[in-house]
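WARN no homologs supplied; continuing
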Amino acid sequence: MNQFEVTINGTTLKLTAEDLAAMSTAMMDAMRTPSEKNLS
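OK structure emitted
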């Protein structure tokens, strides 16, 4: 399993390739339908 670490403003997130794919899909959905809630 591929795992990535991303640090933003001192906070480190450990993500898998699957996490990144899910986030990408959610962001694309949010851009297509900006008036709907896609992220929780």
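The CA atoms of residues 7 and 26 lie 21 Å apart.
OK
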